[in-house]
Write a structure and sequence with these properties.
- The protein is of the alpha+beta class.
- It has 2 domains: 155 residues, no CATH class; 117 residues, LytTr DNA-binding domain (OB fold (Dihydrolipoamide Acetyltransferase, E2P), Beta Barrel).
- The chain contains 7 helices and 12 strands.
- It is elongated and about 80 Å long.
- The relative contact order is 0.09.
């Protein structure tokens, strides 16, 4: 059974649901975002493989080496294919170990270790792929001494790893700036210490060189995302660099309630709560968004709604 838990709508059935903001360039980009990102990586490695093959073939003919022209293509394509296959793992790792000013030393150490693992996986993968191709062509691929060649390949791979990490971080920073990145509005310097509010009344959003304020009461729901918490406001998501546990202690508990390990909701923006057979629930917000509610928090949500 579905319950209507919106006191405002119950008191005024004619109350209109707030209209969503008109789509922006950011909104129009979202359906194409994954496709653009995948194609960008594919194009990058394809161009690298083509130019790497051509330059190697030119060097072979320049120095009169007894190497067939198809061999450089196998070398370059196998290297790029394995590197491309490792991009999702690297993207996941960079989200888990992001670079920030206060933690850059730890992140650098972890990424140095990560570059070694990435290089070993890359070398083992490309050697295996080359051996399979050579065998199919009736040839034998000889990688040479593994110890020395692993060091040689790592010296090349660590540069590729660095470029890829920098590219990912720069792209994410651009996306946050385009989307709008939030921060807690600082308390003025002339406010006495005892009078400083523990709960933020407004958030400052920076968006491509522009700044505007968002009232905490306008935040409809929050979602944890790696080292950020996304503030959902009128159809927009603004990442705030914090944790769900930290922001939960700052927001008004009479208004904001934790409903899931990764979600909090503004009680004023909750439309319906649908119980599920598993014991969990599904929350429908006024804007139509579906928010999961785990059984752990379902009782507290029901209690808060009754108190409201």
């Amino acid at each position: 059974m579905t319950h209507d838990v919106s006191a405002a709508r119950a008191a005024d059935p004619q109350a209109a649901v707030p209209a969503a903001a008109p789509p922006t360039a950011w909104d129009r980009y979202q359906p194409w975002r994954r496709t653009v990102e995948v194609l960008a990586w594919v194009l990058l490695f394809a161009v690298n493989a083509i130019f790497g093959t051509l330059t190697t073939v030119i060097d072979i003919h320049r120095y009169g080496l007894d190497i067939p022209d198809w061999a450089p293509a196998v070398w370059e394509v196998s290297s790029c294919v394995i590197a491309l296959a490792l991009v999702p793992a690297l993207a996941w790792y960079t989200r888990k170990v992001p670079f920030h000013l206060d933690t850059w030393r730890k992140a650098l150490a972890l990424h140095l270790a990560g570059s070694v693992v990435w290089s070993v996986l890359h070398v083992v993968g490309m050697v295996t792929l080359r051996s399979l191709v050579y065998t199919g062509l009736g040839e034998r691929y000889d990688f040479g001494p593994w110890g020395m060649n692993l060091v040689y390949e790592y010296l090349k791979d660590v540069r590729s790893y660095t470029y890829m990490v920098l590219w990912m971080e720069a792209y994410r920073l651009l996306m946050r700036r385009w989307q709008g990145e939030a921060s807690v509005l600082a308390t003025p310097d002339d406010v006495p210490e005892p009078a400083m509010a523990e709960r933020p009344e407004r958030f400052l959003v920076r968006k491509l060189g522009k700044e505007f304020l968002v009232a905490a009461s306008e935040v409809e729901w929050l979602q944890a995302s790696s080292n950020y918490v996304n503030l959902h406001v009128r159809g927009r998501d603004y990442p705030l660099r914090t944790t769900m546990a930290a922001i939960e202690t700052q927001l008004d508990p009479a208004r904001f309630v934790r409903v899931h390990r990764s979600y909090m909701v503004n009680l004023d923006c909750v439309g319906e709560i649908e119980p599920l057979e598993s014991g969990d629930a599904r929350i429908t917000m006024h804007d139509g968004s579906k928010i999961p509610c785990s059984r752990r928090y379902r009782g507290a949500l029901r209690q808060e709604r009754r108190a409201a």
